Amino acid sequence: MKKIDTGPVEFYQFDLLSDFPEVTHAVFTRRGGVSPIPFDSLNVSYHTEDDTKLVDKNRKTITAIIGVAHLVSAHQVHKNGAKIIDRPPESADELQGFDALLTRLPGVALMIKQADCQAIILYDPGRKAIGNVHCGWRGNVLDIIGHTVQAMTDVFGSRPQDILACISPSLGPCCAEFKNFQQEFPPSLWRYVVRPDHFDLWAISRGQLLSAGILPEHIEIAGICTKCRRDEFFSYRGEKITGRSGTVVALSNSAL
Length: 256
Hints:
By secondary structure, the protein is α/β, with parallel strands linked by helices. It has helices at 52-66, 137-142, 144-156, 181-184, 201-211, 236-239, and strands at 2-5, 10-13, 23-28, 70-72, 74-75, 82-85, 95-96, 100-103, 108-114, 118-124, 129-135, 164-167, 193-195, 198-199, 219-221, 245-251. Strands 1-2-3-16-9-4 form a 6-stranded mixed beta sheet. It has a 6-stranded mixed beta sheet with strand order 6-8-11-10-12-15. Strand 13 (193-195) and strand 14 (198-199) form a beta hairpin.
């Protein structure tokens, strides 16, 4: 990844997507917004105790940097539902009950909110289709990754071997402790234990991408733990009461 500093706002971009100018994306840090402690400062979630007017300002900042007319997000519920965005949104209201967003519309940015969970950007250069997936450990258990790749295949005609996948900063194997993992994870995922009660969630997601047909060379993992890097990212595990950062992807008009 590479880090971009636009002044007060900082964000990261994936190397894997750098050769595709029709795709605009950013993994925003917590810096550069207007929200006060403990939501300091670029909090993009309405489902915190932060002032919604300040969240609106933060979202407008992100939209301006991405350079699009529309920003779409969902009230994420840690399940495996995928929503196809086939028309520009008529309001700024969040979609209810989805953890994956997909579109082929230019000028519509898909945003995932995070505070330790993964945002996984998907891009099919052939079909000019993008996706953004919210994947916490519950999403791994439900294989939201496989469901979303299948949705791109069914709706857009994507071939899994053509899709690029980028996993954002998120809870790393250093900090992903699950003391009750035998009740929370199916036995098929226990092999991802890296030391007592600690799981490599990045490796789980990579394995699920591979199982869905994504090629190894088409996967990029940020490898940054959000709990360890609370100076840059929000972390629910590290802070409990905190904000949510945004990972955003959009197609430009050149993708038409």
